[in-house]
Design brief:
Shape: globular
Number of helices: 11
Strand content: 15-25%
Largest sheet: 7 strands, parallel
CATH class of the largest domain: Alpha Beta
Radius of gyration: 19 Å
Number of domains: 2
CATH topology of the largest domain: Rossmann fold
Distance between the termini: 34 Å
Oligomer: single chain
Bound molecules: nicotinamide-adenine-dinucleotide
CATH architecture of the largest domain: 3-Layer(aba) Sandwich
Length: 337
């Protein structure tokens, strides 16, 4: 069975491809390299037997290309990770997010539907919930995103629900909390440009590649005043995609699952854990809060365990940081190195 993975040259996508391969699936990656890395794809291809992973440079909005790929490679399921995902950028330039994430996503879904591929896994996000009215956040929490990025994912989820009802187009929407860590093979990892995620930023400071870390807000109603997030190892995320693909291929119903640990860590806890893991000190200062940053974002995780049989296995804070540190220390310039 071959799975189409859009965004497979990106951080989470490259790990999803690796874990799909480890679980016996063949893969065709479609990525326009707007944010991804050809080097990540090369590493995936080097490790796999010839032909098991095919890379095509192209855009999800290119319907003719997607149609051709589905036919040529007999694609049986799709995992859609390709998207822009910078919250601040989405506020400044919503058109980019509605064009790439929404129009691109809709074009892909429609092309797959017409091509007879009815198993679709969407990379969604905790950002669809907006300001939590309940913590930990269950999947039944109201969907009220606070920015165009979150809205773009919520819109795709809405369209998927309508496609399922009308056409039997089955899907799983995976709402990730904060992805972190790197594959134990050591040659895949996080390299966003610009980097906006806390753990790589703190590790870059530990490496001396940043003078210090700015902590956004020290006056939240949390035990140490800094924001609390639910970090989940990227390989645990990848495992959930494999289970979601299998669920759909075995005829399972459409579903929406949170992917997190159910446990939150504050920014200061992450800083302290990085200092313990790396043995280096990380300078930081407390800055102002960012607009739209909730104090606490933690997943309720019971549904994914019960219905998908998924539980995180590698998402202890220090374990995640140690795997990320192995990647960053060996590749201080990311894939450019
Ligand atoms: N990183 C996180 O913590 C996090 C949290 C929640 C949700 N997500 C979602 O997970 C997915 C992957 O995130 P990531 O951190 O790996 O991002 P990433 O930027 O590393 O990967 C995205 C990939 O998609 C590709 N891409 C973008 N638009 C495309 C298009 N139109 N056609 C083809 N390829 C395209 C990029 O080149 C890149 O390789 C995204 O959908 C994101 O919204 C990420």
């Amino acid at each position: 069975m071959r799975v189409l993975v859009t965004g497979g040259a990106g951080y989470i996508g490259s790990h999803v491809v690796q874990v799909l391969l480890e679980n016996g699936f063949d893969v065709v990656i479609l990525d326009n390299l707007s944010r991804g890395h050809a080097a990540a794809v090369e590493r995936l291809a080097e490790r796999a037997a010839a032909g098991r992973v095919v890379f095509v440079a192209g855009d999800v909005a290119d319907a003719a290309l997607v149609e051709h790929l589905v036919r040529e490679w007999e694609v049986g399921a799709a995992v859609h990770l390709a998207a822009d995902s910078l919250v601040g950028e989405s506020v400044r330039d919503p058109a980019r997010y509605y064009r790439n994430n929404v129009t691109g996503g809709l074009t892909l879904m429609e092309t797959l539907r017409r091509s007879g591929v009815g198993c679709f896994v969407l990379s969604s996000t905790a950002a669809v919930y907006g300001e939590p009215v309940e913590t930990p956040i269950p999947e039944t929490h109201p969907v009220k995103p606070l920015n165009p990025y979150g809205t773009s994912k919520a819109l795709l989820e809405q369209v998927l629900a309508d496609y399922d009802r009308a056409y039997g187009f089955r899907y799983v929407s995976l709402r990730y909390f904060n992805a972190a860590g790197a594959h134990p093979a050591g040659d895949l990892g996080e390299d966003h440009r610009p980097e906006t995620h806390l753990i790589p930023i703190v590790l870059q400071a530990a490496l001396g590649r940043r003078p210090e870390v700015t902590v956004y807000g020290g006056d939240y109603h949390t035990p140490d005043g800094t924001a609390v997030r639910d970090y989940i190892h990227v390989c645990d995320l990848a495992d959930a995609h494999v289970l979601a693909v299998r669920h759909l291929l075995e005829g399972g119903a459409s579903a929406c699952w949170n992917l997190g640990t159910g446990r939150g860590h504050s920014v200061l806890e992450v800083l302290a854990a990085v200092e313990r893991v790396t043995g280096r000190s990380v300078p930081y200062h407390i800055g102002a809060r960012r607009d739209g940053d909730p104090a606490v974002l933690v997943a309720a995780t019971g549904r994914a365990l019960e219905e998908l049989g998924w539980a995180p296995r590698r998402s202890g804070l220090e374990e995640m940081i140690a795997s990320a540190w192995a990647w960053h220390a060996a590749h201080p310039l990311g894939y450019a190195g």
